[in-house]
């Protein structure tokens, strides 16, 4: 990975959250999302507390909501599914605006929307404060198998390359009179996808052989601090990061206790 390579979701900054060890951020993200998912959907107030925790992290990292909100559109397909649930589910029904809606479906839709939104917001917060170089390193420190880390590293590095290749193929089709939006071009588009897959597979083999010839042993080497690698987490960092996460776990436990 090039020295300046960063994924599109990273936001340059020098906040306390940016400087936090990446493995701490990953662990906190997982615990926070588990707490959100475990919260009973029939209890509404905990989700407001979770939202406050995330917004406070945005403030610490100096991430404006206007930067985050457009990138949360990735959950749009799940929101469409949620809209259909009140009409598709059975059981007790209530009337709203002349429509008969399932109570179970409404709760299910609410759970998908609020939990999905909080999970995406938390993930974007970690992505915005963690460089592409730090992610594989953090997973290595957390004991994730080397094969998985290698796959993730190559995916991060070459997803931009493959995207550029796909755009070149698309421009080549257009320059030859292709109409990408025409249904009659579905066959040509399918062939392009197949060609891109084969090129990607062959590129992956070449890259892997090149890595082996340079002494690759199945794990990502840890770079020196200051050369693109964050220092390992200190006990103080773990304690500080545990505060908002512990609050989320406590809120989830309280919600079940008051249910």
How would you characterize this protein structure?
This protein is mainly alpha-helical. It has 2 domains: 22-130 and 230-258, no CATH class; 144-224, no CATH class. 66% of the residues lie in helices and 3% in strands. The chain has helices spanning 16-19, 22-38, 45-61, 65-68, 76-88, 103-128, 134-141, 146-175, 186-213, 235-257; strands at 93-96, 99-102. Strands 1-2 form a two-stranded antiparallel ribbon.
Brief digest:
This protein has ten helices and two strands, in the order H-H-H-H-H-E-E-H-H-H-H-H. Strands 1-2 form a two-stranded antiparallel ribbon.
Class derived from helix and strand content: mainly alpha
Unreliable segments of 5+ consecutive residues? none
Rg over CA atoms, rounded to whole Å, is 23 Å
**Please, what is the average pLDDT?**
82
Helix content: 55-70%
**Secondary-structure element order, N to C:** HHHHHEEHHHHH
Strand content: under 5%
Q: How many strands appear in the DSSP assignment?
A: 2
| Order of strands, widest sheet | 1-2
**Count of domains:** 2
Number of helices: 10
What is the 3D form?
flat
Largest sheet at a glance? 2 strands, antiparallel
- Intertermini distance: 49 Å
Structural topology:
Elements: H1 16-19, H2 22-38, H3 45-61, H4 65-68, H5 76-88, E1 93-96, E2 99-102, H6 103-128, H7 134-141, H8 146-175, H9 186-213, H10 235-257
Antiparallel strand pairs: 1-2
Helix pairs in contact: 2-6, 2-7, 2-10, 3-6, 3-10, 5-6, 7-8, 8-9
């Amino acid at each position: 990975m090039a020295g300046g390579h960063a994924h599109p979701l990273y936001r340059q900054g020098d906040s306390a959250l940016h400087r936090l060890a990446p493995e701490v951020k990953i662990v906190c993200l997982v615990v926070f999302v588990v707490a959100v998912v475990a919260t009973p959907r029939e209890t509404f107030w905990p989700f407001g507390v979770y939202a406050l925790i995330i917004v406070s992290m945005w403030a610490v990292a100096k991430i404006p909501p206007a930067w985050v909100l457009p990138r949360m559109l990735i959950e749009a397909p799940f929101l469409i599914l949620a809209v259909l649930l009140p009409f598709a589910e059975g059981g007790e029904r209530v009337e709203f605006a002349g429509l008969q809606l399932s109570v179970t479906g409404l709760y299910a839709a609410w759970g998908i929307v609020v939990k999905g939104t909080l999970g995406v917001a938390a993930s974007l917060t970690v992505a915005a404060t963690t460089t592409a170089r730090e992610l594989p390193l953090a997973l290595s420190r957390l004991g994730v198998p080397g094969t998985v880390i290698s796959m993730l590293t190559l995916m991060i590095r070459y997803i931009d390359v493959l995207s550029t290749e796909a755009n070149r193929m698309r421009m080549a089709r257009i320059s030859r009179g292709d109409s990408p939006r025409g249904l009659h071009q579905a066959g040509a588009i399918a062939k392009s996808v197949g060609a891109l897959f084969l090129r990607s597979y062959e590129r992956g083999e070449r890259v892997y052989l090149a890595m082996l010839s340079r002494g690759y042993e199945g794990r990502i080497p840890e770079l020196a601090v200051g050369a693109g690698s964050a220092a390992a987490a200190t006990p103080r960092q773990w304690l500080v990061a545990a505060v908002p996460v512990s609050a989320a776990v406590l809120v989830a436990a309280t919600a079940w206790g008051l249910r």
